[in-house]
Design goal:
Layout lengths: L8 E7 L18 H10 L7 E7 H16 L3 E5 L5 H14 L4 E5 L5 H4 L13 E3 L3 H10 L5 H4 L5 E4 L5 E3 L26 E3 L26 H13 L4 E4 L8 H13 L2 H4 L1 E6 L6 H10 L3 E7 L3 H6 L6 H12 L5 E7 L6 H12 L4 E6 L7 H4 L7 E2 L6 E3 L5 H17 L8 E4 L1
Length: 440
């Protein structure tokens, strides 16, 4: 029971919901998912604490609206959920908040919230605008922080998974994040926190066993970090109640965790919404098996992304990308029989690959069934930002994290390929965004 004398802890969460790059999804709504995971974790604490929690979307409120809303709410704790596209505006918002209310505890989380990002020139001086960075799972860390009556650096240092800024520009890293049974992680869908009629997001496991240098999935996680069949089935049933028009599988790949796939297939047998909704997923070509093909055919996959990245094995080896090139073409031809819409994904500007090598990769991808999607290489946290090689000599824009040059790609090379992709995409009746080009 809550004490009637207990002071209410006021918690605010802030994110910036982006418009899909290139507007390719039309009227479909893509709500911010990560921040709602954290919201669910705090809502789950209401039986043990007196908590008032609110969510603020920068995209809807704007700079002035967000500033005024936070001032009116006067939270004790503010969590900023940061992604590449929201890095600069959310850090600017945190600076304004700390100037106006220095006593407010500010924590950053999300895929782009890493000390390596805050060390970049535009974002330095993190100690002046934030108190902690959640570099582990935020839905676990936020509960421990909220329970703390005194959030001093000394107390915070007892919680694993945090980066704590110091006034000299260095950081205190608090070690490994606390572990939790996956099914104990609160669901925003099962707590009725997600909007009706929007695209739904499904997790069956966390992490990625590959840890490619160009990819933000970062370090390998234990393969046992999977959600159970019952948990996944409850998520799918919640999607159905919300009439989600599409389900986006957030996993690094449909077939990269055997236990998670078994649980997903079993959950699909107990539910029906994956067959009714559009289903979007990524799949790893080297380990496609008949059971994966059968599953995809059964639910009628609407979009399937197949990661190739490059045909140059030396480049892939340099980026720790493990792939069996001999299995790629047979896997693509098998997948083409069961996926309504699939794309081979490649990257240009990769360190170690030349423009000529990228053109060979593009030509090969265009010769395969399905479509092709070319991405501009980004220098992401937990990826090239912290795991590049000195000889690659990478340069990038710290606002959007786009590669601008490296040892193999000059600035002119990058610009020229972007221009060529603009033309090729139109010739192939494709489309494009700021950092991607598709080819039908």
């Amino acid at each position: 029971m809550q004490s009637t004398l207990q002071r209410t802890t006021k918690v605010a969460f802030v994110s910036l919901s982006p418009d899909p790059d290139g507007g390719e999804l039309g009227p479909l709504e893509l709500p911010s998912y990560g921040v709602h995971r954290i919201l669910a974790a705090v809502h789950a604490m209401k039986d043990e604490m007196d908590i008032d929690v609110q969510y603020f979307d920068y995209a809807r409120l704007g700079k002035v609206g967000l500033t005024n809303a936070l001032a009116a709410f006067a939270p004790d704790v503010v969590g900023f959920s940061m992604y590449v596209w929201s890095t600069m505006p959310l850090i600017a918002a945190a600076r304004r908040l700390k100037r106006a209310s220095p006593e407010t505890f500010v924590i950053f989380g999300g895929p782009s919230a890493r000390s390596s990002v805050f060390d970049l020139e535009p974002y330095r001086g993190a100690h002046s605008y934030l108190d902690a960075v959640a570099e582990g799972d935020g839905d676990v860390l936020i509960q421990q922080i909220i329970r703390m009556p005194d959030r001093t650096p000394a107390n915070l240092a007892k919680i694993g998974g945090l980066a704590l800024p110091k006034s000299d520009g260095t950081w205190t890293k608090t070690g490994f994040a606390p572990s939790v049974a996956m099914d104990e992680i609160a669901s925003p869908y099962q707590q009725h926190l997600m909007p009706h009629g929007a695209v739904a997001y499904l997790e069956t496991y966390r992490g990625c066993p590959l840890s490619c240098r160009f990819c933000e999935w970062g370090a390998v996680r234990p393969a046992k970090d999977v959600f159970s069949t019952d948990y996944i089935a409850a998520e799918i049933n919640a999607f159905e109640k919300l009439e989600a028009p599409a389900v986006f599988l957030l996993d690094a790949g449909l077939n990269l965790n055997a236990a998670a796939f078994r649980n997903l297939a079993a959950a699909n047998d107990k539910t029906r919404h994956l067959k009714d909704a559009m289903f979007w997923a990524e799949i790893y070509p080297s380990t496609v098996r008949p059971k994966h093909l059968e599953f995809l055919e059964n639910i009628g996959t609407s979009y399937l992304g197949i990661g190739l990245q490059s045909t140059d094995q030396a480049v892939l080896d340099a980026h720790d990308r493990k792939i069996d090139q001999t299995r790629f073409e047979p896997a693509v031809r098998d997948l083409a029989k069961v996926a309504h819409n699939m794309e081979i994904q490649i990257i240009f500007g990769l360190p170690g690959e030349t423009p000529e090598g990228f053109r060979r990769t593009l030509d090969f991808a265009l010769s395969m069934p399905g479509g092709v999607r070319a991405y501009h290489c980004l220098v992401l946290p937990d990826a090239l930002l912290s795991r590049s090689r000195p000889e690659w000599d990478i340069k990038f824009d710290p606002v959007n994290f786009a590669m601008t040059s490296n040892a193999q790609w000059s600035q002119d090379d990058i610009r020229n390929v972007r221009t060529k992709l603009d033309h090729l995409s139109k010739q192939h009746n494709g489309s494009s965004g700021t950092f991607w080009w598709s080819f039908k």
